[in-house]
Design brief:
By secondary structure, the chain is mainly α. It contains four helices and no strands. It holds the Pfam family zf-dskA_traR.
């Protein structure tokens, strides 16, 4: 069963919007990262400043990794939309509940298969 075109277009627009937000956030993170400052290497900052910058950099790297993963999930969802298989569980091929897709548009598994996967 394929999704109606209007719903498919709404989902696609939502996913593209989310992807754009992620790209914008990733650019912002790069600009805020103290390690991206080329003058940082020439800076003789105190060790507490250095530790603070290191901690900030690690937090930003972790967030960047999460965002990149989510961006890839969005890309995969868009590809499934293009192929006409969006909303089908990748494990059992049954349709994923629309409430689940509304909450997590990048869902790959129906609720039952997700539970089995988590065990």
């Amino acid at each position: 069963m394929k999704l109606p075109k209007t719903i498919s277009e709404e989902i696609k627009a939502h996913l593209i919007d989310e992807e754009a937000k992620i790209k914008k956030t990733l650019v912002s993170l790069k600009l805020q990262d103290p390690f991206s400052d080329p003058d940082r290497l020439n800076d003789n900052a105190a060790s507490d400043t250095e530790a603070s910058e290191e901690s900030s950099h690690e937090r930003m790297e972790a967030l960047e990794k999460e965002l990149n993963i989510h961006q890839e999930e969005i890309h995969q969802a868009l590809m499934r939309l293009e192929k006409g298989i969006y909303g089908k569980c990748v494990a059992c091929a049954s349709m994923i509940d629309t409430d689940r897709l509304a909450i997590k548009p990048t869902a790959l598994y129906c609720v039952d298969c997700e539970k089995k996967k988590e065990k």
